Amino acid sequence: MKNLNIPEEIFPLITEEEIIMFQELQIKIKELNNKINLTRLINDDDYWVSQVFDSIWPFKTFTNINFDNKKFLDIGSGCGFPGLAYAITHPTSEIYLVDSSKKKTDALKALIKEINFKNKIHVINDRIENLAHQSSMRNSFDIAATRAVSNPSTVSEYIIPMLKKEGLGVLYCGKWNDEESKNLNKTLEILEGKVREKKGINLPRNKGTRNIILIKPKDFCPKIYPRKVGKPEKNPL
Question: Which neighbouring-strand residues pair with 121?
C-alpha cells in the first residue's frame, strides 16, 4: 500500500481503506477539474500534504478530544477540504458542506454521489452570514471548521454563532504571532467565545507552517453576529 507519491507521515493517521477512498476522491476531483477548475492542489504532494494531511492531522493530534459521532460544519468547503477528508476518517459523523459558489456545491454533490461515503452528508449553496441566522442552523454544531477562507477574526465571526455550547471551532492558520493572538482574543471577547487550545507543526515535504487554534463559546453569541454578507470580511471585529 505504501506509495512513493504518499508521504510517510500520512500512514500513522489513516487506514488502508481510508487511503483507497482518498485515492478515489483524488481521481474524481481530477475528472471534475477538467471541466470546472475546482482546485490546483490535486497532484502528488499538493494533494497528499496540502489537502489530505493538512485537513486531517488536527483531528488526530488533539488526543484528549473525541471527534467521532459529531455534527460537523465545513464553511467555504470548496472542493471538499477539510469536510470530505474529515468524513472519510470519521464515518460516524454527520457532515454539512457550505459554499457560496454554486459551481463548487454542484461539484461536491457529484463527488458525494460517486464515492461511497458512510456519513450522512448535506451540501448547502449559501452564505454562512445567512445560514447563521436560521434557527435550524444556529448553535447546532459540535464542530465547525474553515480552511483557506479568511483571517482568524473574520472566520471566528462565522464559526462561533454556529456552535453548540460545548462545540469547538477549528481555525486553520499559517504563521502565528502575538499580535494575531491579541486580535483573535479581542474578537472572541465580543462574540462570547474563547481560545481552548493551539497546536502548530511544520507540514511534511516542506509545505510550510500550520497552526490550529481551537475556539469555543463561553456563552451564546450576541444575535447580531455574524453581520450582513461581506461585513465580517471587509471590517473584521
Answer: 95
Residue recorded with cell 456552535: 163
Q: What is the DSSP letter of 221?
A: P
Contacts of 164 (CB under 8 A, 6+ apart): 139, 140, 141, 142, 217
Per the CB < 8 A criterion, the answer to whether 55 and 71 are in contact is no
Contact at 8 Å (CB) between 80 and 148? no
Task: Look at residue 1 and tell me if it is in a domain.
Answer: no
Q: How many domains in the chain? A: 1
- The answer to whether residue 82 sits within a structural domain is yes
Question: Is 130 domain-assigned?
Answer: yes
Cell 476531483, residue located: 29
| CB burial of residue 162 (10 Å; 0-12, 13-18, 19+) | buried
User: Which tens digits make up the pLDDT trace of 18-32?
Assistant: 999 999 999 999 999
Collapsing DSSP states into helix, strand and coil, what is residue 99?
Answer: strand
Predicted confidence (pLDDT) per residue in 169-220, tens digit: 999 998 888 888 999 999 999 999 999 999 999 999 999 899 999 999 999 9
> Where in the sequence is the domain holding 227, given as residue range(s)?
8-234
Task: Kindly give the residue spans of alpha helices, DSSP state H, lying in 51-199.
Answer: 54-56, 58-61, 83-89, 102-114, 128-131, 152-159, 178-191
